[in-house]
Amino acid sequence: MGGQKFQYDESGGTFYYFLLSFLALVLIPTTIYAWPRKKKEDPEKLREECQCPPCIKKKAIIAASEPYKNLKTFCTKLLLVLGWVFLAYLAYRVSQFDYEMVNFDPFEILGIPPDSSQADIKKAYRKLSVVLHPDKETGDEKAFMKLTKAYQALTDDEARKNWEKYGNPDGPGAMSFGIALPSWIVEKENSVWVLGLYALVFMVALPIAVGTWWYRSIRFSGDKVLLDTAQMYFFFFHKTPNMALKRVIMILAASLEFDKRHNSQVVERLSDNDEVPALIRHLPNLNEKCKEQPLCRMYSIKARAIIHAHLSRIMLNPDTLDKDRQFIVKKCPYLIQEMISCVHHLVVLAYARRISRLPNIETIENCMKLSPMIIQGLWEFKNPLLQLPYLTEDHVHFIMKKKHIKNLQQFAQLKPEECRQLLRNFSDFEYENIMKVLGKMPLIDFSIRCEVIDDENTNVVTAGAIVTVTVTLVRKNMKDLFGDTTRPAKQEITENDEQPDVNGEQNEEQQTVKKTNTWAKPNKKQHKGKGGKKPGPVKPKQHAPSNVSKSPAPGDSKKSDNGPVQEKPTKAATATESDIDSDESDNEDKDDLGASSDENEKKSSVEDDDDVEWERLQQKLNKREKLEGKSRISHSVHSPYFPEDKQEYWWTYICDRKSRTLLTAPYHITNLVDREEVQLKFTAPRWPGVYTLTVCLRSDSYIGMDQQQELKLDVQKAPEITTDHPQWDISESESEHNDQQENESEFATDTSEDEE
Asked: Polar residues bias located where (predicted)?
């Protein structure tokens, strides 16, 4: 590596190149994504929006929540423009750099044509040297040296060869490595300032920035909720496994996000000493005398009173308490989601026997109920029609008296003339706004499909198998129901009532159950009798599969669309007409041909099943990849009492109503635009029998949009594993008895069928 040189940039040219390239890499994408763009309001969209007074007030609140928006826009534009000006300056400086040997042409330097003679070359050199000599007034040392090199390249034989071969009269230059930094950085007189700047940036500013970020981030969970708040949720939900709705509101109001000591955004005023007690006197059942910590603290009582006032739609002082209401209500959706996560984690810990108390399903459902109450500013016992603009308690009472309408679906199904007659006290403008809001509300087609993916026979559920329930949601607008009186309206989830399908039709699984009564009755010896005696070892009865339906016609599908309700059809049902005719004509060879046709048919059916399962697996993998980048934009919610734009979200989960337990984690659906599929997985009971579960769908934005469907599992006994190892043998009575005790704590079987 002799001849190499390692040096800093003396002239600063390469440093300008470095700055130019770095600034261009940063400035171009920043301008594309960060340049403020003024959103053009679509007239069609404005026409579809609600123009009721609360919605207009909400728009004003959202606009006022960003007071420095114009200033931020101006500063952003100014910084970007200054960046582009500096980039243009760097480009100009780089273009002015003069590199001597880049395009060295001696004829051009001397100003003579390439075919000039030696006399012409000498004459031109003498003429220019008189002008450019450093001793002259018009002299230029740099230009004179360049002129001398050009003269030598044309007069000296060695220099001319070097120029023709290497483009340089001095011959090949030595390889050099340089750093794109100016040389003054390493000069002695500047070393103190350079080291000081280095220490200030990397030893003071950077550690402070990282430490501040880390200190703030470790105080919050992934959903931007304080860890102390989540710890408080765990304590109260473990203390009270069956928590009422008003108790959930008390826990929500005690969140540390509303405490000045934990959140600097909280504003405390002297006027609170007068306004908060006056507000409490107007709110019944507030339970402000509670002695529990931190439920009895002043910030908690104030937040609780404001939440109650929000749900009762009580007007507050716009300069004081109403601003606090906006601050509290904005944070409630994140806190409620954290509550649901805490309850689910407690359920998991209870199943793992880490804690003794198992939270009931009512507790987590009360948390879910609170979300649409906060978004709509309405108590759960109020009529869902109050979510529509302009409607008051008196209007709803009049509508109930005339048509006995209890939900939004029934109201949307009224004939236009009947609907206008009920709302005759409203003007045409108000009536139009009511119907616009109603028509944009969600109408969800809720369907389920149950299967055992990892098993050979996906339609049969065995004890301890992993059951996958695929929930399919198709969103439509409520305006599809306008005037449709033949379509049964949906009902809200209740604990004991069964929820019909959106179309008023039961799925194929439920129809099969009602017509053929194919569900197997579990052995009564599995349960304890009235005398309380423990059951002895029970041997399962050998009976025909109870989940086999009537033989379908040739060409029907082999699998049920709604889960493991039916076995595979018999061979007679799956045989084609040609096979039957051939069997009848060839009576002599009936046994041989029948056996061969059955074997071929089995092979073809197995291959078809494998292809179908492979396609399903690929679809599920693709869905899983899509869900990794899940969007949080679906449809805007009409929520005039919520001070921010809210998107429609949903929860879906599986529970057992009889044992009051949660079987799957509540899946939060945040991207339901038109259609969405969700997979819920749980472990089947360890004891054979018929189990009735419930698949629930809940809205976090609207009251009265909840749905549920029953899911019946006919759990078959798992096949026994034969082994020759005596040390693995377990007595049958002991294993069945242990499985029975574990299973009774997990699920409750269908007792109504047992009694029959």
From this structure: 509-520
